[in-house]
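Re: weekly structure request thread

Next one in the queue (304 aa):
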Amino acid sequence: MIFSPNFLKNILKYFFHNILKSNAVDLHLLNNSNKNMSIFRNKVVVITGGSDGIGKALVDAFLDMGAKVATCGRNYDKLYQLQSIHAGKPLFIHTADVSIEQECERFINATIKNFSTIDILINNAGISMRALFTDVETMALKRVMDINFWGAVYCTKFALPYILNNKGTITGISSVAGYRGLPGRTGYSASKFALNGWMEALRTELLESGVNVMWVCPGFTASNIRNAALNQKGEAHGETSMDEGSMMSSEECARHIIEAIEKRKRTIVLTTTGKKTVYLNRFFPAIADKLVRKFFYKNGALIK
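Done, posted below.
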């Protein structure tokens, strides 16, 4: 079937108008929500990768709302600094690499020892990459998959009995790259596609258990994840410079996530650009191919 240019233009205008309207409504709800929501008071919230970016913003927010928070990361100094900022609050820190199953088990067990149970698990720990598939070493792809996908699987496996008992929530911080493959990020996109599919299957398995399983897909967010992005050799080098000022802040992203957990949503896609990308890729994938290519490339070279 051949569509006229005007038809395509009107379809895109319709979707983008409604996406923007939806985004505005979400912000209105967030701006009018009660910061001290009693729903999270004394709840035990586990957040992986809580020393930077979205994870840190989530730790800050949940503690402000009276929750008990456990978080892990690979850098003890950053975790200790986080604990110092929240001195006197119920924050438990633990050094762990979520790509290692035994370290995930120790983290969850230590959390239970400290707080006795788990109500909410947020699988936030993640790493990005920037390298063309023709250049990348496979071990770099494996590293991304081990952290972004297997880290969520391990932590969820060990935390699940407690979350089932409390009819709590399991959340995965995914990405728009889990809906739309992005050039220079083959491993990252693969890990987020895997995370989305696994969480959807898990949600279906637990549908009648009282546990809510949801995944959140931010677009480009001002976060440390780009600074730790892997190059073709699997070494951290940071992504190319992007306009952080035009991106959603980690704090705003955290507010959306908390709102979604409170409402026990299935999934949310954040930022207007992220929503446009997901909808365009779903209904007009060939157009999405060209627009994504144009965004990431200049004169045949990957620039973002």
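Residues 18-36 have pLDDT under 50 and may be disordered. The chain has one domain: 5-302.
Next request, please.
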